[in-house]
């Protein structure tokens, strides 16, 4: 198994076990907060957020980006994975359609973090190939760009090392 497959497996796992089970507010298309809003499943992106118009979802936020920060190899290959979670919450829409701004968007982040932690803890081996290593750490970004909210989850994964036969390739 290689690093790209790890990203693919983790994305599939997060789509099936997290993103498909929750809905969050999507930012308005033109950036103007209106009385109506749309709830959507978080987009799950592999590696980085794709450029505009390259996403399968048609939106980036809410989203979970699955990234590999670094890795090492000895008897097992160890990779350090980071999940960037981004949500949108400008406030509460009142019954009269007027938006009441607030700073409670962090609650959506904490709910997504909790869901991911539960799923990773209940499924420490992803698709029979990727071992999730504890500790699972999480942190809120120190700078928040209201009405967008962001946080990180980090954890290690173990996979079998890359196998190759030097004798066959060089002799």
Quick recap:
The protein is α+β, with helices and mostly antiparallel strands and about 170 residues long.
Helix coverage percent of residues?
A: 10-25%
* Nearest-integer average pLDDT: 87
Assess the beta-strand content as a share of residues. 35-45%
Number of helical regions:
3
Describe the secondary structure blueprint for this structure.
Blueprint: H1 3-17, E1 24-26, E2 38-40, E3 43-46, E4 63-73, E5 77-88, E6 91-93, E7 99-101, H2 106-122, E8 125-126, E9 130-140, E10 148-159, H3 166-170
Parallel strand pairs: 3-4
Antiparallel strand pairs: 1-2, 4-5, 5-10, 6-7, 8-9, 9-10
Describe the protein:
The chain is of the alpha+beta class and 171 residues long. 22% of the residues lie in helices and 37% in strands. It is built from three helices and ten strands; from the N terminus they run αβββββββαβββα. The strands form three sheets. It has a six-stranded mixed β-sheet with strand order 3-4-5-10-9-8, covered by helices on one side. It has a two-stranded antiparallel ribbon with strand order 1-2. The longest helix is centred in the middle third of the chain and has 17 residues, at 106-122. It starts with a helix and ends with a helix.
